Amino acid sequence: MVNSTLSHISYLLDTNIISELIKPQPNPHIISQFQLYQYEIAIPSLVWHELRLGWLKMPQGQRKEMIGSFLQTLSV
Q: How far apart are CA 62 and CA 34, in angstroms?
């Protein structure tokens, strides 16, 4: 049986799009598209692990906490 969550995924995001979303001043068009399709997107596990590796190398601070929280919300 197919997972019902997976049957609604229309878009796989790459590292560049996710990186744009977590910039201090992201592109407004990327943000609006993300919000519009937020229930239809996922990222490949390879991208999630690439982002996590970058997150692990970041210095401690508020930005690292924010990005860590964001990574936990993503569907892989």
A: 23
Q: Which amino acid type is present at position 47?
A: V
Distance between first and last Cα of the chain: 19
Whether 56 and 71 have beta carbons less than 8 Å apart is answered as no
71 contacts 51 by C-beta, under 8 angstroms? yes
User: Considering the entire predicted model, what is its pTM?
Assistant: 0.72
Domain ranges of the chain: 6-73
- Residue ranges in the chain whose pLDDT is less than 70: 1-7, 75-76
CATH homologous superfamily of 6-73 equals: 5'-nuclease (3.40.50.1010)
**53 Rama class: left (phi>0) / alpha (psi -120 to 50) / beta:** alpha
